[in-house]
Amino acid sequence: MPSTILQTRTPKRVTITLNRPQSRNALNRQMLRELCDAFQTLEADPDCSVVVLEGKAGFFCTGMDFEEFAADPAQAAVGAAEGELDSTYMTLLKAIAASSKVVVSVVAGQVLAGGVGLVAASDLVIATPPSTFGLPEALWGLLPACVTPFLIRRVGFHPAYKLALTTQNITAEEACRIGLVDAVQEAPEEILRRYLLRLSRLDTATIATLKSYFRAMWILDDRMERAAVEEINRLSRSPRVQDNIRNYQVHRKFPWEI
Amino acid sequence: MPSTILQTRTPKRVTITLNRPQSRNALNRQMLRELCDAFQTLEADPDCSVVVLEGKAGFFCTGMDFEEFAADPAQAAVGAAEGELDSTYMTLLKAIAASSKVVVSVVAGQVLAGGVGLVAASDLVIATPPSTFGLPEALWGLLPACVTPFLIRRVGFHPAYKLALTTQNITAEEACRIGLVDAVQEAPEEILRRYLLRLSRLDTATIATLKSYFRAMWILDDRMERAAVEEINRLSRSPRVQDNIRNYQVHRKFPWEI
Amino acid sequence: MPSTILQTRTPKRVTITLNRPQSRNALNRQMLRELCDAFQTLEADPDCSVVVLEGKAGFFCTGMDFEEFAADPAQAAVGAAEGELDSTYMTLLKAIAASSKVVVSVVAGQVLAGGVGLVAASDLVIATPPSTFGLPEALWGLLPACVTPFLIRRVGFHPAYKLALTTQNITAEEACRIGLVDAVQEAPEEILRRYLLRLSRLDTATIATLKSYFRAMWILDDRMERAAVEEINRLSRSPRVQDNIRNYQVHRKFPWEI
């Protein structure tokens, strides 16, 4: 099975490219595992101080893979019961947020659902002007359960809640205004280089200490992360949610059209 | 006694209009009870998915009714001791914040004190450009005790604190900048219709789950709400506060003029 | 030893001017003690309702005094072990944040490291347009440990984290956008006078109650403050940090140049 991600290196910097363009860079189990493995491996790599996360072909990441979920909801449900799918996603968010590398998401295109969590957990986010960000989960009877604590931490309670409630995409400009994005740039490479120049002066031990210290000064903790995994497992096992997603995959019918 | 609120319906939407224009839509006990009853009744109404909250005649809501408070401070103090006045207000804020309906405040005019709490507890807020928002409580020796946790949740700590400390009104534009208001519009109906179109795709069970899940991911909890009620009861029983308000009602003298 | 601060009075207002221009208003032990004493004395002063904090000669405050730290790192480490240096700084931040006076920082110039904490703990902040704000601690292997909980409270998690991670200065305009500064003004005196007019209507008992009530409605508590002091003590005793600062003081070499 070919890898779902690409990795390239320049001195000090590793770029991870999400590479499932045929699925609009949806997160399937393989990609989640490969991303977790990549972050774990990089942790031991002294030559890397910055990890750039990006997507292919107009999509950054569009969240959970509906095809995988619909093809075998029972298995997905069991997977979830065993904590595989969703705890892998939470493990990934935690790996990004606790990494001793600075993780910079470079967004050029659509970001949906779980993709918003990758962005929210990143240290810095640069987006091109046409990029969009949205949380459509509630349309399916789901919640952005794992995304929420990281999103609240980055943008505050109400902007996070509003994204989840309205299910409407926002522009890169709006995402920058609420703090989900740090810079909107046609050519992200330029601002990225400026960040790298500055960040290369920090040693990785200090970065890791900084992250864990700021975590201790905020409300996002292990208990909240467990509650998030339990909630997404509970919801993804719900027959109504499974029907909603299967109907869409098979008949292209949205829940509110039925 | 005629009702202090009006209710009108269009498909899926119930509009509640605060209707005490002679008192600038101040919250007296009757209005608090009627609002609580209205939200409770609507909870069981499957045809309603959005509740619009609005005020009459240039006032959204101007907070606690001073006339009622000054006319019988002993009774007000006893009422507070029994938790009637203020726990009814807190019950209302919680009903709005936990409702399985999307609550949209449409503000056209002045919002003061307890009125700011109604806005802060709402899911979405649209305001006309001349609307203003202020927390004058500290001028009377009071605090916006019940408002505070909901306001902090919506706009963050410092903007909430600054409103309470400076006691100065802010414009709709400024309220939008800090996140108290979601959209500033001359004609709120247009943006309201756009929200409704989108929100009608969510079922009420998902809305209720979303609200309770986001609550679990934030610091506003039962303990904080109880502390808020205790604080406002304590302050409203203070002789100094009672004198301040009675002096104003009887002699039109502000505390700092005495 | 001449005082490191100046105090001047006008009716209702005491202005404290940080006055170590030769050290760019760095915080040495004497200044920390004198500031703590000043706030404690003012607490008992019924004629003062507003304290203005300002710096001399183009610097508001540039954080810990490196000269003092480098001259005797052993003593500094012991001082820290006994909690002297850093707990005095935390005591100062708490005195500002809990004062029954309204503390207004008027910034005209550079604000670095611990200086940002003074600003973050203040009730209101006015800055001239050329002022800048930055947290360079991580460049030295340190963290803005005591600053962080006050900064998060004022601007939210991510803007605080980003300042600490990027170690880059931001302008007054940007500081205002994230909420670290309340107003950017060429002539701060004018807006200061407007604030004073309004604030003089509050009595100090109400101000103190307001501050302690808002504290109870947020996450910054004694436990977090103790954790902050422990962290800065731990880091300042680290040989690597001591070497970094001594190398700079003696050889003008930054850690990343060695």
List the helices and strands and how they pair.
The structure is a homotrimer of 258-residue chains.
Chain A: E1 5-10, E2 12-18, H1 29-43, E3 48-55, E4 59-61, H2 66-71, H3 73-81, H4 84-98, E5 102-107, E6 110-112, H5 114-121, E7 124-127, E8 132-134, H6 147-155, H7 157-166, E9 170-171, H8 172-178, E10 183-184, H9 188-199, H10 204-216, H11 222-236, H12 239-251
Parallel strand pairs in A: 2-3, 3-5, 4-6, 5-7, 6-8, 7-10
Antiparallel strand pairs in A: 1-2, 8-9
Helix pairs in contact in A: 1-4, 3-4, 3-11, 4-5, 5-6, 6-7
Overview of the molecule:
Three copies of one chain form a homotrimer. Chain A is an alpha/beta fold and 258 residues long. Chain A has one domain (5-186): 2-enoyl-CoA Hydratase, Chain A, domain 1 (Alpha-Beta Complex), CATH 3.90.226. Chain A has helices at 29-43, 66-71, 73-81, 84-98, 114-121, 147-155, 157-166, 172-178, 188-199, 204-216, 222-236, 239-251, and strands at 5-10, 12-18, 48-55, 59-61, 102-107, 110-112, 124-127, 132-134, 170-171, 183-184. In chain A, the strands form two sheets. Chain A has a six-stranded mixed beta sheet, sandwiched between helices. A four-stranded mixed beta sheet of chain A has the order 4-6-8-9. Chain A starts with a strand and ends in a 7-residue tail after the last helix. Chains in contact: A-B, A-C, B-C. The A-B interface holds A 138-139, 141, 143, 145, 148-149, 152, 156-162, 164-168, 219, 224, 227-228, 231, 235, 254-256 and B 102, 123-124, 153-156, 179, 182, 195, 198-203, 205-207, 209-210, 213-214, 216-219.
